[in-house]
Design brief:
Strand content: 15-25%
Radius of gyration: 31 Å
Number of helices: 6
Protein name: HNH endonuclease
Biased composition (Basic and acidic residues): 256-267
Helix content: 10-25%
Region (Disordered): 229-267
Number of strands: 12
Structural class: alpha+beta
Shape: elongated
GO molecular function, one term: endonuclease activity
Order of helices and strands: EEHHEHEEHEEHEEHEEE
Keywords: Endonuclease, Hydrolase, Nuclease
Strand order of the largest sheet: 5-4-3-6-7
Length: 267
């Protein structure tokens, strides 16, 4: 009956999953034939995918990309969060990523999605704390965990000489969002309301140098470097010096301890 319409998602192994749809027979059949017909048009001598593989790719592409009810143009596109450790993205770690609603995904898939696959929101995480450090251009709003991380890093307004608490300051995009600035730790810093206005309406210009340091250039061209209140880099533990090997002792041929002549028995 029509009341039995439903969609079921099932996670599988090896970064795979299944999607089951139950609905009106004519609609399901029409959707199936449209998927198959589109897949058939993609076959050719240079196409290595099988027809069933093409059909699966066509269906997911249409669902993710979005179509209008009349089948033309682009409708509402799906948005899926993929969380990627920053060292995995850089190729320096094989730690898995995390796909919202599914679970862990292999590093290669995580890197591919983070590289700009449509409809996926990339979340880069700190290698030590797991805090989200970057939302890229996907959102203007700063996540709560990143706000807390920035509050610990900055502690105060980051304008030269200002000591107003970060708790009473704004989290500002150093390169304005509308000018292409990203929502990540390397483009965000605390500014009190006064210095926020100074930065917005004068020629004072900040530039992130890395590790939380910010270089400010005044309208006259003078430069000032503001250090972070907390070093947020992963700690570097020096390797301890190797311990010298213990001496080899032959327990069966130990020299007898010398006798104390004062305690020797006369007998």
């Amino acid at each position: 009956s029509v009341e039995d319409r439903h969609v079921v998602f099932q996670a599988l192994n090896d970064s795979m999953a299944s999607l089951y749809v139950t609905g009106d027979a004519e609609k399901i059949q029409a959707a199936y034939h449209r998927t198959l017909d589109t897949a058939l048009t993609l076959q050719g001598p240079d196409e290595n995918r099988t027809l069933t593989q093409l059909a699966a790719d066509v269906l997911t592409d249409m669902l993710i990309g979005g179509v209008t009810p009349d089948g033309t143009g682009t409708g509402v596109a799906a948005q899926v969060n993929v969380t990627v450790p920053v060292l995995t993205l850089l190729g320096k770690s094989e730690e898995p990523g995390y796909l919202a609603g599914y679970g862990p995904i292999d590093p290669d898939t995580a890197r591919r999605l983070a590289a700009g696959a449509p409809s996926f929101t990339r979340l880069l995480t700190h290698p030590e704390t797991g805090v989200v450090l970057s939302m890229g251009r996907d959102t203007y709003k700063v996540p709560a965990a990143l706000k807390k991380w920035l509050e610990v890093r900055d502690e105060t307004c980051t304008f030269p000489g200002c000591r107003r608490s970060a708790k009473r300051s704004d989290v500002d995009h150093s390169v304005e969002w509308q000018h292409g600035g990203q929502t990540d730790a390397m483009n965000l810093a605390h500014l009190c309301p006064y210095h926020h206005a100074v930065k917005s309406y004068t020629r004072w210009t900040p530039r992130h140098l890395g590790d939380g340091r910010i270089e400010w250039t005044s309208p006259a061209g003078y430069r000032y470097i503001v250090e972070p209140s907390a070093d947020m880099r992963p700690p570097k533990h020096p390797k301890p010096a190797p311990r010298p090997p213990a001496p080899v002792v032959d327990v069966w041929n130990l020299d007898p301890e010398p006798k104390d002549p004062d305690n020797q028995s006369p007998f």
